Batch of 4 targets.
Target 1
Amino acid sequence: MPELHELPALALRDLLRSGTVSAADATAHFLERIRQQNPLLGAFITVTADQAMEQARTADALRSLSDEDDLPLLHGMPLAFKDLTDVAGVVTTHGSAALDHKPAPADAPLVALFKDAGVISLGKTQVPEFGLTAYSENRIAPPSRNPHAPSRSSGGSSGGSAAAVAAGLLPFAPGTDGGGSVRIPAAACGLVGLKPGRGMVAAGESAGDPAQLVAPGPLARNAEDAALMMDALAPGNRYLAAVKAEPPRLRIGVTLDSPWSSTFPFTPDREALDALRAGETLLEHAGHVLGDAAIRYDNRYPDAFTTAWTAGVGAARISPSREALLAPLTRTFRRRAQQRSPAKLAEALAFLRQFQHATLAQYGQWDLILMPALAQTPRPVGWFTGTAHGSDRWPSAQWPGDADGDYRKQCEYAPWSSMVNVCGLPAITIPVHWTGGAAGSGLPMGIQLVGPMGSEALLLQVARQLGY
């Protein structure tokens, strides 16, 4: 019999609903996994063990009084939330030393949605400061590390959640994706990561997001587990039922074009191209028709996206006396955001709407668009910031200050993610390749498939068809 953390989330959910496994036993098991593994991985900032066990005992009492069919969808399932998202009574750090760390007065809508679905919250996972970066390192806690190679980053901004799922500290986890923040860590950690289309998840958080970039989505070990979470995120769509159907034969356009190329020219690593070829082979063997898709992107995109992406941090309430505690990248982009006029932001948002229409017209010539998930292998901890050897904590005076170099590295690492958020489209990353040759060997590398609005179930079907 596999241990609980080895089970797919769907199998664990079924054991909890049937009463074969109690919520208290499942919660205790995953809390022990966290106790053992988190000192190495840095996946959690806060662990709420006492509250979790109390919630689990309440769930078991409910189970004893209810028929299985009357239980909520995710009855007793252990879960955790990014430390950008408020959980009542738990500190939300936003990954920042510049904020007062006070317990949140109420659950965020996303947390309330999952609690209504029956989950047990085990704590808060590691994030970059204000969720701004493609790596999960900050000044308040050890960096989130990749379970497949702890010297490497787990990605960002949902890096702690991805590391926790990949290491078996959680069965699956929700992330939020505003520029790749579900798909980047999923790809880095060898998971399936789904970014739903704009507006698909009603509990999406939009504060400080004038371009409506952010969408919550699942980080999971396979497509069925991701579909189960989507049934909680977007009730009534029946993703778990749909994912088991075979997708139709699809026309898939393959591209390496990126809207960042004009500003930050890059060459994909050989491992990224190996992953793309592996994905092409799997898709062709499944009966899909692939062709080259030449996508033309407006070279004004990088400046407009950066303007929209950093608007929120410019408006964040931070005491002037604590500004020096911000990481250099945050501080630099906050200052620039505050110096921009409202007209400049409005101009950027208007351009992004035009970019969306132009890109959708090109993507619409195909059923799906295929590209690598990342242009490089998972990066070493400390690589983006220049912190030698990825030290677990860096005092303000020692953290290097090359914000523009940091940002450029991120855009070269993940050049195919942010434009999907601008377009509001669904996209999925699938871990089709490992640098060591076999699943679980070496570093994971993946592909990204981008679909039209409303294609979340189709993307999950294709991932399952490919064996994930």
Target 2
Amino acid sequence: MITYSIKSNENFSDKIGELVCMLEHSREVTLSEISNLTQSELDYLPHHSSNSIGSLLSHIASIEFVHQVASFEKRDLTKDEYEKWGTALELGDKARKVIRNHGIDCYLNNLSHVRENTLTYFRSIKDGWLFEENKWGNGVSHNNYYLWFHVMEDEINHRGQIRTMKRLLEYR
């Protein structure tokens, strides 16, 4: 059930709990948008250079996974992880060919599994972790709070694309 209040979840420290509340709200809204889509709708490409709804859902899961690795494990993807997640992460031509012919349950299970791991990680840390400063390979500073804000903003952005594609589906 979608809630419309940001509150700290009791299973987490205060700020982590607020972040979890926002991540979970964003996910619930996304799930409500896609829950009844057919395989054909998930594979629909409104334009030859578009990404399908299924690809966008895989991308949402891949972004969250990559941010788990970067923020909690302080590393880049391994070769095997990149093999599994790279297509969804990058989208484009390869994703249009590879990420298709899956029912909604495949995407829901993928999103759910990644989120369960995120919540497990978040239960193990305290608020100060959010403000830990790190640097990307190019020397630009960021903190963990920003990384998880980006996970949320990326999902919301792609949910907007999904909503547009659903409207286009009505006219095909």
Target 3
Amino acid sequence: MDKSRGEEAGKAIEARMGRIKHKIMVMSGKGGVGKTTVAANLAFALGMAGLDVGLMDADIHGPDIPKILGIEDKRSEVRGNKIYLVQVTPRLKAISIGFLLPDRDSPVIWRGPMKMNAIRQFLTDVEWGELDYMVVDLPPGTGDEPLSVVQLIKKVDGGIIVTTPQDLALLDSRKAVNFSKLLKVPVIGIIENMSGFVCPYCGKDMNIFKYGGGEKAAVELDVPFLGRVPFDPKMVEAADSGTPFVLQKESKVGEAFEQIVKKVREFVEVK
């Protein structure tokens, strides 16, 4: 991209992002920790609180947001050079490369520059409108996509790091925290996902993936600890059926996530 086009794109992004009050990134140091599930349920919960929310799926190769929200068959409307968000609920809209592919099984076989152009297009050509929150679901790791999102949006309110209690996941979550600090993105906090298993028969907790590692990492890295989300088979079923688990307020998972959302809002809105 030449300098003049780059400046034009930068101004377009600044204008669009200026209409969004708060921008949040959800990231993880490695895959398989439930980051996308957390991002989708966070966006859904903010919408349930009466806020206008836009959810951006920045995982170009693994766009799972359409599946988790139960809208795999929907497609974004494209008119001229404008792309329109898919309406999920009256308060929640989303964009994903999955909404622009011919069908759900189409692979995205792109190298880095094409992925970066897609993310830039999400920010310049998508009609975001006036929003209270933008939630960006990033792919695992600290590579091209997270770096591009930070550099293009510029004013990110903060990042949420999702991890599991295992030592390997915690090692990678520390890298994600340090990535945020190096790029001067405030760390909203760490979420310890799959923290204990809720027995479907007796309701008791069993620590099959260890326990407390996320909180320990938060203390060591001097960042907030947002809470633990237990592993619950109902949560898996909810994701597969496209039903956000935050709707299950009577469950331990729903209760834990409700407290996490409160902490996220306090951090972002008070700051």
Target 4
Amino acid sequence: MSTSSATPAAVTTWNLDPAHSAAEFKVKHMMISNVKGKFSNLSGSLKLDEADVTRSSVEASIPLDSLNTGDAQRDGHLKSADFFDAEKFPIFTFKSTAVKRTGDGELSVTGDLTLHGVTQAVTFAVEGPSAPSKDPWGNFRVGLSATARINRKDFGLSWNAALETGGVLVGEDVAITLDVQFIKA
């Protein structure tokens, strides 16, 4: 039986800080401009492998009742059974399955995105995580930004209305942007 002199890699746990994190989306409206929305009250964790970031993993949950597009009537429609059906599917989740380095400080993070009761593989382009930084209260923090594009129909979000001028009211492609901070556990 041989013994290894290699030191095991340090894997640290970081909890998502909902006060300094947001998930945003944008989608084409009437085929002429983008409508943006924001989700708050995110939760999740990052298991950071300090020796090899590609062996790290992340999980996050986003409550659909936190949706805000700046228009209460539109928010209500988006939360209804026509779109997210927030009563039946109150949260959407992401759980990473693979992390690849794509450049200096850049990663490709693939994982299972579950939305509206449907799970699909989605890949996020990630900037970060940043180097740990100590806040004024003694906590260590890291941050990252992530972007992805999905087709909402892939998740069963197919409601739409035809326009008199041709085209549709709501685009299919949705851009997702995450800006998050994690606090070392």
